[in-house]
Amino acid sequence: GENVEQHPSTLSVQEGDSAVIKCTYSDSASNYFPWYKQELGKGPQLIIDIRSNVGEKKDQRIAVTLNKTAKHFSLHITETQPEDSAVYFCAASGVPASKLTFGTGTRLQVTL
Amino acid sequence: EAGVAQSPRYKIIEKRQSVAFWCNPISGHATLYWYQQILGQGPKLLIQFQNNGVVDDSQLPKDRFSAERLKGVDSTLKIQPAKLEDSAVYLCASSLASGGNTIYFGEGSWLTVV
Question: Among candidates A49, A3, A4, A93, which has minimal Cα distance to B48?
């Protein structure tokens, strides 16, 4: 089955700096890669996703890149703000609505 | 648009007791998932339904866990008897059956087994 590794496990940045979280996956058949943000006491919330026919996708301060050859994808957050502090999970799955395999999470802390 | 609804939000039970969690997916979503999230880990799929049929229950501990989705809408996840290691957040999620893969999660049901 699919295996997703995520690094780093914790990340502390100053407000305004950029944050990068990286994930690798094992199943070359995976073709859908979402990122979720989870705040304390809440369920995961989708923030951005990318499909295998696209190399990069951007939504305001958030971007995701995908390298299918190397089987890794990354989340980039620019101009970080305190409200970006949360746990971020990457995930991978095939189509159609197949199960998501999650990474182990990255706790991002944005300090003033 | 209403999100995925779950209840109860919090439950504390003693080991060997039983517990049930309820989920109402986003309207029109044919696919429903139950995930288990142990503290400090990513969610792990327990069971996936397509309408009222099971698509994947390979990681469901069937000796103690059961789930049903009788009318293809609401779902119930039951644990009987509970063990200490079942302490976790149980997340329900849903997605459209066709088209995209976007999966939306509920707020979760927090279970503590003492």
Answer: A93
B53 touches chain A (CB under 8 A): no
Question: Would you place residue A96 in the very low, low, confident or very high pLDDT band (cuts 50, 70, 90)?
Answer: low
Q: Are B56 and B45 in contact (CB under 8 A)?
A: yes
What is the reported pLDDT for A35?
97
Q: How many Cβ atoms sit within 10 Å of the Cβ of residue A83? A: 8
Alpha-carbon distance of B17 to B81, in angstroms, equals 5
Q: What is the mean pLDDT of each run of 10 residues along chain B (114 residues)?
A: 92 98 94 94 93 91 95 94 97 78 91 98
Residue B96 CB partners (closer than 8 Å, separation 6+): A97, B28, B29, B30, B31, B102
Q: Is pLDDT above 80 for A94?
A: no
Are β-strands A10-14 and A106-111 bridged in parallel, bridged antiparallel, or unpaired?
parallel
Rounded to the nearest angstrom, the minimum Cα separation between A62 and chain B is 18
Q: Is there a contact between A91 and B97 if contact means CB atoms under 8 Å apart?
A: no
What DSSP designation does B51 have? Answer: T
The answer to whether the CB atoms of A105 and B40 lie below 8 A apart is: yes
- Model pLDDT for residues A13-50, shown as the tens digit of each residue: 999 999 999 999 999 988 889 999 999 989 999 999 99
User: Do B47 and B28 contact (CB within 8 A), yes or no?
Assistant: no
- What whole-number distance in Å separates Cα of residue A101 and Cα of residue A33? 10
Q: Taking CB atoms and an 8 Å limit, are B101 and A36 in contact across chains?
A: no
